[in-house]
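Retro notes - structure team

What went well: the batch runner handled both jobs without manual restarts.
What didn't: labels got mixed up in the shared folder, which is why I'm recording both outputs here explicitly, each with its sequence directly above its tokens.

Job 1
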Amino acid sequence: MKIRTSLVHLTGLCFLTYGGLAQNEPPQAHIVSLTLDPQIVTVLHLHPGFVSSVRLPEEVSSVVLGDPAAFRGEHSEAEPRLVFFKPANPKPGKSNALITTRSGREVSLTLVSDGASAHPEAVDYVLEYQPQRSFLISSVYPTVLIGDTKSLGSERPASPSDSPKPDGDERWQPRQQLATPLVWHGKQLRVAVGRTEEKGSDMTVAFSVVNASSGTVELLPPQVQLSGTAKQKHHKAIKAEPVAVKDYRMTSRRLPPGATTEGAVVFERPAFKESRERLVLQIAQAEEVDRPVLVPIAFVAPVKGAAK
């Protein structure tokens, strides 16, 4: 009788031990890599007792939590591109978080925790955002003003935030870039023109802007003009005729020192021009609108850049 009782106790102890070990098994770890897109909200799966890290392609300036009582977010100047999230209590909860980068980009997250009592199926240990694809190829011809902007396995096209367009719009899709060195214009504000494409009477011109000054600048929307000289009776007069801009995109219009923004502008090219005239892209900052940077644009798009 004593032997039978001991066997029952031993069997129960084994079941309890196995159940405790099963509950203490670590959750399935996920490492997620995404392209940085301010228009997409990413769900971050958390669990009490575990910390998840979010890595950005540029420095973080601020982190805001929707419910600080349910979740915690930590950011250290020693790791300027990392943000850490974890549940603040063992209860299930949902909230949101907003991360803002130095260049003004915003990253939206939905934080989800099933609570300590539930066995988690998966926890996002690492969420890494990769930079968007560039309009311009500058890595082939390096410059001291532009850092490395190579893309790491992105499947989604760049989607600047100034004027969102459907993904099917071919004018904003990344294509094969012109393999020519960029020519920079300006001093405090450096501007270069990249790919130029023509479709019917519309022209699409890609450009890049670098803030080479020591302060933060805010850019105005790009302008296009037909400029030249007109012969007067006793002197030559400079004329500038604005060209209507149909649409434009810029990854950011607010640039801290050393930051770069890229964009594209669509306009209807004039049917003709005089030999003394030329198309010019005009980029200016809000506090110096009277001192824009003027960059010449080809009146006829190169064959390699023309849309088929």
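Job 2
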Amino acid sequence: MKKIFKYIASAAAVVSVLASCNLDLVPISSIAYEEGGQLIQTQANLTALENGLLQSYRTLQMGEFEIASEVMMDGFNATLDYGNNYGGIHKTDYNFTSSDYYVEDYWSYNYSAIKNYNIFIAAADNVSDDLKANARVAKGEAFFLRASSYLNLARHFGKAYNASTADSDLCVPLVTVYDQQEKPARATVKEVYTQIKADLDSAALCLAGVKGAVRSNRPTIDAVNALYARYFLDVADYASAAEYAHKLIDAGTYKLASTAEEMAAEFVNDAGTEPIYQVHASLAEGTNASAVWTYWTSDSNHGEVFRPYFLPTQSVIDMYSTGDLRFAAWFDNTEWVLLNGKYYQGDFYIFKKFWGNPALTSAIRNGRQAPKPLTIAEQYLIAAEAEEAAGNASAAKADLNALQVARNADITDATKDNIRKEWFKETIGCGLRMSCMKRWGLGYNGRPAQAGAAVILNSGDIYDGKVFAADDYHYQWPIPSHEMKINKNLKQNGGYGE
């Protein structure tokens, strides 16, 4: 009888291992077990595997997994020193292909994590009676994590959910059982979102008794509800999106930062009151860095010096009102900046939202923060957008204004444009801009440069003059070339060729 072995990353693994869509690679620092055998045998074993799942998820947070889609949109300009980092996806010209490094990473790291989630879900019920309760919680976490990965994959590789075409629009392969030999075709957008909902339903059952807490470093029922809100907004079930967002808003567990000190606690020291789920981070283990905005070093003549690859556009600078706490916390024109061999101070603003937590560096700040994939601020935005779309103007205004008041921003009516602008102001740099623009069916016309920065920015039709149509095919990232070669059942997204 042929023995089939399965592999799941152990908690000792430092990084997630790349795996192809058919999941046929044996990961380094992994645990092998024979199919049908008992993977989870002791509490220590269960804890290690559970930590391995959470580590797989952590590997997908911040760094390139947020930066790539962010610089594809209209918020940032590439400096002359950016060295073509994220160049193909920033320019979305002939350089952006199915071999793009960031596209391949987004696909392979997510599927590597999904492989781990699938194996654990299949094994979680085959445990001794004394482990059943804890294994059920860990299984709920795995369902939540898998739903998150599929939602992110759908937002990047599939079309925006449209009820009239979702059952024919292609999305990503749907793999819920680990099979080394499988060469899955792409599922439809409807099929993938149906699976996301099913996983969230399973997570909600398993995690029903796991109460949420500020900065929880693992999934809770509150995290499940927050992801439900994202899901329902994507599928245009506005009543449910607002309902789930308000489960979190109305509970009062999570508080919006409303002073400069609270903003610093939130976005510098990782000690704020907004995170529904804040992924574990430590100096020893590190996190993905978001240093492209701030590359920082010490200079004998100028002290702290920044060398960013990207600067915020003039449109970004202009959208914040005087006194907005976010502008004061996330943008700076007082620091020394070295670009193209020249020092600048006071000529333009840099983006410092992810400069880094000093506790996560042993020398200079390196753009490392504790990732915060779900926050209460996003729930206010989801509620406002959903309520406005459903025609509940008063509720939409109340939620939008609550966020604006906390941030000391101008108070506005809850029009579509104002809500969309608030999304941009609040989530800039977090990797949500592309999914928002895609959901709204919008493109953009140019990335106007800050006047004082024009001489140190790349310019032209693929840079500051970039025009990105609402139906631009780049909204659907290409299926990675490696996957297309090894799996002939895959069909490429339009515009990229086969």
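One thing worth noting from job 2: The two ends are 39 Å apart (CA to CA).
We'll revisit the folder naming next retro.
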